[in-house]
Amino acid sequence: MAKKPLLEFTDKGIYCAPGNFYIDPWQPVDDAVITHAHADHAYPGNKRYLAHQLSKEVLLYRLGEIQLQTAAYGEKVMKNGVQISLHPAGHVIGSAQVRVEYQGEVWVVSGDYKVEYDGVSTPFEAVRCHHFISECTFGMPVYQWKPQAAVFNDINNWWRHNLDHGLATVLVGYSLGKAQRILQNLDLDNGKVYTHGVIENTNEALRRNGIQLNPTERITPESAKEEVRKGIIIAPPSSVGTPWMRKFQPYSFGYCSGWMAIRGAKRRRAADRGFVLSDHADWDGLISAIDATGCECVYLTHGYTATFSRYLNEIGFNAREVHTLYGDDEAASPQPSPKEREEEAELPHLALSKEYDLGEHEVKALSFGEGWGEATKDEANAGGPDL
Amino acid sequence: MKSFARLFLSLDETNKTNEKVKVLKDYFNSVPDTDKMHMLALFAGRKPKRQINSTLVRNWAIEASNIPAWLFEESYHVVGDLAETMALLMPKHFGNSSKTLTEWIAEINALGDKTEEEKKLWLMESWAMLDTSERFVFNKLLTGSFRVGVSQSLVIKALSEISGINAAALTHRIMGSWMPETYSYSQLMQDQNVADDLSRPYPFFLAYPIQETSEKQRSAEDMRILLGDEAEWQAEWKWDGIRAQMIKRGGEIFIWSRGEDLATDKFPELHPFLNALPDGTVIDGELLSFKNGLPMPFNLLQTRIGRKNLNKKILEESPVAVIAYDCLEYEGEDIRYKTQAERRLILEQLHAETPYPALFNISSLIPFSTWDELATIRERSRAMIAEGIMLKRKSAAYQVGRKRGDWWKWKIDPLSVDAVMIYAQKGHGRRADLYTDYTFAVWDGDKLVPFAKAYSGLTDAEINKVDYFIKRNTLEKFGPVRTVKPQLVFEIGFEGINKSTRHKSGIALRFPRILRWRQDKPKEEADTLENLKALLGDE
Predict the structure, then answer these.
(1) Chain B interface with A: residues with Cβ < 8 Å
(2) Which of A62, B218, B436, B532 has its CA 20 to 30 A from that of A20?
(3) What pLDDT sits at residue A328?
(4) A264–B432 CB contact, under 8 Å
(5) For residue A344, is it within any domain?
(6) What pLDDT, in 10s, does the model give residues B426-466?
(7) Which domain holds residue A305?
(8) Where are the CATH 1.10.3260.10 domain residues in chain B?
(9) Closest by Cβ to A331, choosing from B68, B80, B468
(10) CATH of B415-534 given 1.10.10.10, 2.60.120.260, 2.40.50.320, 2.40.50.140
């Protein structure tokens, strides 16, 4: 037991001592390996970054001028004798699991992942390892996703229904991940796709990165409202209930999220339609992914960690809960409603962490309510985990 | 059942009243008449009788889901609805069923005399042939908890638009003790008379609050603007008991509570007075415990409501009498169309004729000539054991449901204390997976003593913040209950306070709720048990 584990959980993030680097650190460090460009995984302030090549432009757009090295999936990068490689996580475009190997011992950090192919992100690949550090945002058996073809069938039908009834169609999803997944799976025979500026900025970054996306049109003050109403509008959560959205009235607004699987959560959102579409693995997906690694030990970083680890231990895995700043124990609950969000917008950033004495192992740099997700400067108050 | 499941999904898919009505109309237009009546019964809050005890249903659902019992319980706390939890956890269906709602309910009702094994076999087979959304409504039928996000008045509106029969008449026709098995859709569509169902009550007319919260006080000037001339109104005390309708028809008597429960047997001491009424009489009033001719606080009545059997002791300790408000039927005629003033005269006449004046009281009118004067009188409500004042327009008919305009309640401000939250539990329905049910405590020396639970009063935004705090400040977990670091202070409002031997604090509150979150107050400044007990008065 004298030997230290290859990866440790520290108050700055997941740390590799022999290689002297961190994975998805939340405090500034010298060397950071980034699983994906969402704000709870890619923090600003690190000296050097290593990430997948497909997340390059988005990282530069979100974090500004950073010193960034990129790698392809499977490419080996050596650091102080430790071998690092990135493997597809299937979460969003450019998302990676980080494989770390040293003296024959292999650890994998999943970041966020889903096992179903979404049509845009490189599909998830299980990586054999001794130790697997996994998310479990939806680690409860009530979360079981339908195949995405069925969900998009519902979405396309809903869009057509709105067109027939003179309603504009607004579909809400996160600007990195959900927005592109929606864009690539819509039935474009129905009409054109219009995007909120925040989403279009991300689309442009991805296109600069060589990603082929379906055509979109950025909504500007000059956009012809009647034309926009004939298409579909993809908007970020932060725009719900804002004057920006209200100008397209009358509309039907749909929300894409894994949380929509529960009736109560759906009602709380007060969306016209909730579509159960998640960029995270569902219950069966999590278990199959963990099983496929063949790991001796699985560490659960965020989601229903207590319940899920207890269950995994009962069915024969060696599972442990760890506390990180990704997602957050149970707090990764659904988005606040528009009204809440407006109120939140009035709160000074990080208001709560100042007001309350949060538990020791808990978050220091979390804006109220959740805050994981993609808080770029445009949508700093959007809040919410990326789903 | 497919149509019924689809109805649920469609109602969930819209927030707009007009669309909900359209969905309801589409449903009515597409299902057999017997299904219409069953749906109506369910949406009107008539619980199907539970044929399998819910522990068994739960256990078999756990078995069908093939997960450990503890994981089922955890899932239930995340979902916040038992029927939905069971529907979500079961494996995918492989069969298919085209049975109608009527057929399913008939099968459920036929279970009563089956053995446990037969019930289990039937249930497992049924689950296997239903998809997730069908299972959800099926489980709702089975567990007998059928709260839907649609009001009865919306269902009536849809039915009224389809049939051309006005909503008030339809509302009346679905009052009382009908059964969907015997009351047909064509009967519902026909004109009816009293003889069809002697027990049928009228829909209650309910008052609207004149001030929504205690923070929005109404001045005498506001009252003048809202209600106009004082002379057009009659004022009464708002009594705090059980609102009830008492019927004497064809030599039979019936007592209905406002929840549409037939409660005739629960109040035997009232039978002589009801039997003495002339046939064809319906009285609307309040049932209260009385002592020495004076009404008593609600908690005395509460002790006997839950009892299955009324023994002599209870009847002696809290004898009930009526304070009558109104007369809805007289000499067999529905007189709801008459004015308040006219109906009052008839009520007074009935009162004058009763041989049981101690049982049949009449809600006395409060004389007042200005709104200012009435505002002053309202301050005495608590001393009168009343909740405030009722205002009724003298020229108004007796209407259906809660309507603005002619009946107003002007309640007194609640009592309140500042208390510290010490326990929390997850909520249900739209509050699933959020900590929304709290237990509050006040100081007793340096100890915090729990004295009330409250679920409501915070905004969604506040709930999110409190939930966030709880998840990070849990001291201990006992099943679904978390002990929370005592820190957050809330102002708790309540309608009344009484001594209680059942509670650790020695007191029991009536209608406790959160008035506001006192973010400005440290926990040390919360109230003490002594402060609370001082509100008990001299009793």
Answers:
(1) 12-15, 65, 67-68, 70-71, 74-75, 78-81, 84-85, 88-89, 149, 428-434, 459-461, 464-465, 467-469, 471-473, 487
(2) A62
(3) 38
(4) yes
(5) no
(6) 888 777 788 999 999 999 988 999 999 988 788 888 898 99
(7) 7-143+279-330
(8) 2-143
(9) B468
(10) 2.40.50.140
Number of domains in chain A: 2
Q: Are residues A213 and A321 in the same domain?
A: no
A105 touches chain B (CB under 8 A): no
> Is B430's CB within 8 Å of A329's CB?
no
Cis peptide, bond prior to residue A338, ω within 30 of zero? no
Could you tell me if A359 lies within 8 Å of chain B, comparing CB atoms? yes
Parts of chain B with a pLDDT under 50: 538-539
Mean pLDDT by 10 residues, chain A (387 residues): 83 95 96 94 95 96 94 96 97 97 96 95 97 96 96 96 94 94 96 95 96 96 91 92 89 92 82 92 97 96 91 96 64 34 30 25 26 29 34
Question: In chain A, which residues have their Cβ closer than 8 Å to the Cβ of B473?
Answer: 356, 358-359
pLDDT score of B194 = 62
List residues bridging with B317 in a β-sheet.
none
Give me the residues of A, 175-194, that contact B with CB < 8 A.
none
Nearest residue on chain A to B462, alpha-carbon basis: A340
* B135: number of Cβ within 10 Å: 26
- pLDDT for the residue numbered B213: 64
Q: Are B398 and B334 in contact (CB under 8 A)?
A: no
Provide DSSP, B214-277: TTSPPPHHHHHHHH--GGGEEEEEEE-SEEEEEEEETTEEEEEETTS-B-GGG-GGGHHHHHTS
Q: Which residues of B touch A164 (CB under 8 A)?
A: none
Same domain, A84 and A192: no
Q: The domain that contains A261 carries what CATH number?
A: 3.40.50
Q: How far is A190 from B391, CA to CA, in rounded Å? A: 57
Using CA coordinates, name the residue in chain A closest to B465.
A369
- In terms of CATH architecture, what is B205-411? 2-Layer Sandwich (3.30)
CATH of the domain at A117: 3.60.15.10
A33 and A135, same domain (yes or no)? yes
Give residue A371's pLDDT: 24
Q: Which CATH number fits domain B2-143: 3.40.50.300, 2.160.10.10, 1.10.3260.10, 1.20.1050.10?
A: 1.10.3260.10
Residues A283 and A270 in one domain: no
- CA-based nearest distance B98→chain A, Å: 23
Q: Which site among B90, B430, B484 would you substitute to test the A interface, given the most A Cβ atoms closer than 10 Å to its Cβ?
A: B430
Q: For chain A, positions 238-277, list CB contacts with chain B under 8 A.
A: 261-268, 270, 272-273
Please state the length of chain A: 387
* Residue B5 Cα to chain centre, angstroms: 25
DSSP letter for each residue of A63-120: H-S-EEEEE-BT-EEEETTEEEEEEE--SSTT-EEEEEEETTEEEEE--S--SS--SS
Cβ-Cβ contacts under 8 Å between A and B: the total is 100
